Amino acid sequence: MKRLSLLLAVALGLATAVSARPAVIECWFVEDAGGGKLAKKPAALLLRQGAESPPLRPDLAPERYLKIHDPAGALQAAFRQYPRDAPAPRCEMSLYVPLPASAKWLSGLTPEQSCPRALDGTWLMVSMSSPFLSLSSLLRPQSEPQPEPALITMATAVLTVFTHTPTPRIPMGQDALLDLSFAYVPLTPKAPSLAPGPPPFGLEWRRQHLGKGHLLLAVTPGLNGQVPAAREGAVAFAAWDDDEPWGPWTGNGTFWLPAVRPSQEGTYLATVHLPYLQGQITLELAVLKPPKVALTPAPLVWAAPGEAPPELLCLVSHFYPSHGLEVEWELRGGPEGRLQKAEGQRWLSALRHHSDGSLSLSAHLQLPPVTSEQHGARYACRVHHPSLSALGRSAEVTLQVAGLSGPSLEDGIGLFLSAFLLLGLLKALGWAAAYLTTQNSMEKKTE
């Protein structure tokens, strides 16, 4: 009975997960309009459907209303972790032309002189992006729309590449692990001229900088060719996950970059190459380091009634990046007994750069003259930064008004003078003792 209950719970969980995935993705079909301009037309992808007919879409041309056939289950896998309440990803669709890869180290993928006839016909490339998913899929649509109640075009997802970490945020000095999955459905299954098993493929990871992609890693599982050496210690776990004789096949190209530094953040391009077919996705890697916060003088700051306390200095050190940093000054427990913005003149220093790429600055606050009611109030320096929680990080000092608690200002001056006189007396006694010792030594030598 327990086993039946467990199976029922699992089934209900899977049903919930399936229903959470979007059934229809709204897209824009983008094409060249001439003169350097692009034209956008509405389109839609029907990812899943029950027993009912496809919903009517009179606003869409049949060639832009696509019912997706996904034999590898890649699109389902891509949306399996998609949050239920998250907005649908941005989607664009355009025409695609199969071409061989231009890189020399990928020449082994296309030994033939021309594109095979099996790749003739119309191809579409679909790109989806959101904070939770980056996906690219090459679709092979049928030539004619299906005569269903709603005119719709059937399309097969041939090559799909996706990641669940499109915007990784990596603490500085830690390793970056960027997941990458892909799937391929052969166009001519069980063809006599083809060997069974997954085909060789090429994988490259690049970092985009100043409009150019700098190659960090290139691998060619299944090919015996020379590839460029990996840079910056990058490693990829690139392989087909299964070995079905005739497909479809799924693969993995997860990327590992050790001990990331600020210079390594930016746009990363992951491209999976098959003969004449390429799927590429984009990731935006951000490097973060939370700031250290220290406030001086601490833990107490003294002032007499009617006088201004010493300037407060808040040291915000070894953080990254510079944008998004905010410094606030707060007064806690003042005359009104509540948290409020501290009054006074404030300013920030220039940024200081450290050898590891992190930054530091100092925030200054010159307080106005204090009153006796402010005795015991606490001044806090609160820092907000993208690497911190919404509350940020703070440091504080307590204001002591002289004459109300502890030694008064006059007492402090008296103690200082007493200490000064005592120190002078001790020095005088030391000199006298040294003089007497010298005289005694001279008298003994005379005798």
Write the layout of secondary structure elements.
Layout: H1 2-20, E1 24-34, E2 37-46, E3 65-69, H2 74-79, E4 90-95, E5 124-130, E6 133-141, E7 153-163, E8 169-171, E9 176-178, E10 181-184, E11 202-209, E12 212-219, E13 235-240, E14 249-257, E15 266-274, E16 277-288, E17 292-296, E18 300-303, E19 312-319, E20 326-332, E21 340-341, E22 345-348, E23 352-353, E24 359-366, E25 378-384, E26 393-401, H3 409-446
Parallel strand pairs: 1-4, 2-3, 3-7, 8-16, 18-26
Antiparallel strand pairs: 1-2, 4-5, 5-6, 6-7, 7-10, 9-14, 10-14, 11-12, 11-15, 13-14, 15-16, 17-19, 19-24, 20-21, 20-25, 22-24, 23-24, 25-26
Keyword list:
447 residues, mainly beta, 7-stranded mixed barrel, 5-stranded mixed sheet, elongated, disordered C terminus
Query: Numbering strands along the chain, what is their spatial order in the largest sheet?
Result: 1-2-3-7-6-5-4
**Total number of β-strand segments?**
26
Binned strand content? 35-45%
The end-to-end span amounts to 116 Å
**Rg, Å, rounded:** 35 Å
Tell me about this structure:
- The chain has helices at 2-20, 74-79, 409-446; strands at residues 24-34, 37-46, 65-69, 90-95, 124-130, 133-141, 153-163, 169-171, 176-178, 181-184, 202-209, 212-219, 235-240, 249-257, 266-274, 277-288, 292-296, 300-303, 312-319, 326-332, 340-341, 345-348, 352-353, 359-366, 378-384, 393-401.
- A hairpin with a 7-residue loop joins β20 and β21 (340-341).
- Residues 1-20, 405-422 and 442-447 have low confidence and may be disordered.
- The radius of gyration is 35 Å and the shape is elongated.
- It is built from three helices and 26 strands.
- The strands form four sheets. It has a seven-stranded mixed barrel.
- It has 447 residues and is mainly beta.
